[in-house]
Amino acid sequence: MKALKALSAALALPILIVIVWWLGTMNETNPFVPKPGQMLNDLFTVWVGPLMAEQVVPSLYRLGVGLGAAIIVGITLGLLIGASRLARALTGPAFEFIRAVPPPVLLPVLLLILGIDDRSKIFLIFLGCLWPILLNTIDGVRSVDSVLADTTSTYGMQGWARFRWFVFPAALPRIMTGIRLALPIAIILMVVSEMYAALDGLGYRIMLFKQTFQMGPMWAGILIIGLIGILMAGLFRLVERRVLAWYYGQREMEKQ
Amino acid sequence: MSTDVTGTTPKGEVLLSVQGVQKVYSTPTGPVEAVRDLTFDLGKGEFACLVGPSGSGKTTLLKVISGLMPATSGRVVLDGKTIDGPPRGMALVFQEYGRSLYPWMRVAENVVLPLRAAGVPKAERRARVDEALEQVGLAHVPKSYPWQLSGGMQQRVAIARAIAYRPEVLLMDEPFAAVDAQTRADLEDLVRKVWKELGITVLFVTHDIDESVYLGERVIILSSSPTIILEDLRIDLPAERDQLETRSMPEFVEQRHHVYEQIQKAKRGYNADTASMSAVAASGV
User: What is the tens place of the pLDDT at every residue in A113-150?
Assistant: First the structure.
């Protein structure tokens, strides 16, 4: 009952938007304006099938590798930098600078250095996703509880033991926040990198449809991007609820 | 009643020796001297309470003793070795129980962690955790998370973790200041029980005069900051203590009264500086 209620609440607005959209475009003759029925039709007739495997799978591969690398490198570097005052002082200004540079402007250079294949796209996704994860991890390590830190010290836990049992779990809520922020960035950079110069991928195909005036399939491709976003957010929430069960449980207790 | 302020002579073998400890913090507005000069010895198996008014540098002192913080001058010696970091033979129970247990670990995991980190074999680990939880009366909740328990129970978990670690010296920093009065009485008796059963040495810091007299075999009274020892008092109460009977004994009332007066003196601003001034005045210079 509760789940049903939550589901209907989540779906109410999208359904309303689709209805308004559908009614508003019913008598529309401009071929550039998308219609919901046409879009859904194109999604199934054009995209579902071999096109999905040819164009969406490479995109998801780049997204997965880029984001995965950003998570691993971001957490590792973040734990190391966050734990050392000297490292924080040294990296602070440089990070502020690099972080202010929008990743897409690097794309032309990356294409020249790394080539038109997967590497330049993966690297761009990696670079864009790295910052929110890295900076949040550093902050998470810095803001660990001082009493818990003293407890860990008095029980003689140092080095790896301290990271594994104290610093990492204590910083995990912030790390997860960083990953959540990185998800939409990953999708944006995936599409942008494929629109610029690519031989396959969702962004490439959407641009191709646009250039050949196939507006329906183009809009259907955009719909797929949105669906990937929803799917990733849902998957992330599932993982987060699992690994941070203690965190939400504790917060729930404090509210009572 | 012994009121030996300078040299303290515990019975038996000296386990912990605090020698001329001074602690000066550097702050943006200049150095602040929290502790002036503290010297006392703790014998093996002793139960001593450190009592002082709030702001008397009790927590600072405990951090220095536990090796979390270096002393500005002087040294702390445990079992013949000068401390330069948290030593293996000490466990510290904090006042903030809610912040000293790992919220991502269940009760038993919290208790076992220091043993895992110290490389204690698995079978022995389990035995020690079970025993410690039994001793604090928490054998029934090993799978709960700390934040699911009441404050008093959380502090019991922290005590269980400390005794499972088998320290030579158990340091307690106002451990019951944040729990309600009834829970507090239970926990006081628990600490006495654990002390007697395990024969460990306890240094118990508190601002509560009643608590210090009720718990300790010895009460060390601190001045206000910069801190010196005002008095080192031996408590003449029977080993078996009872919340009702002991507290109504004339000896208890008398010693409580005495400690109270000393704390009042400290609160009026008696510290290292005023002490030396009055010494100068007394010597007639």
Answer: 877 788 888 888 998 999 999 999 999 999 999 999 99
B185 lies in a domain? no
**CB–CB of B94 and A165 under 8 A?**
no
pLDDT in tens, B17-64: 888 888 888 888 888 888 888 898 988 889 999 998 877 788 888 899
Q: Is residue A103 part of a domain?
A: yes
* Residue B162 forms part of a structural domain: no
CATH number of the domain to which B271 belongs: 3.40.50.300
How many independent structural domains does chain A possess? Answer: 1
Distance CA B159, CA B93 (A): 7
Q: CB of B225 within 8 Å of any CB in chain A?
A: no
Residues 120-149 of B with CB under 8 A from A: 145, 147-148
**B150 to chain A: closest CA residue:** A253
ipTM confidence score = 0.85
Q: Which two tokens stand for residue B267?
A: 């609160």
Q: Name the residue among A74, A64, A65, A67 with its Cα closest to residue A99.
A: A74
DSSP 8-state class, residue B146: G
Structural domain harbouring A144? 42-255
Average pLDDT over chain B, rounded to an integer: 84
- Cα–Cα–Cα angle for B32, B172, B147, nearest 5°? 105
Q: How many separate domains does chain B show?
A: 1
Chain B residues within 8 A of A243 when measuring between CB atoms: none
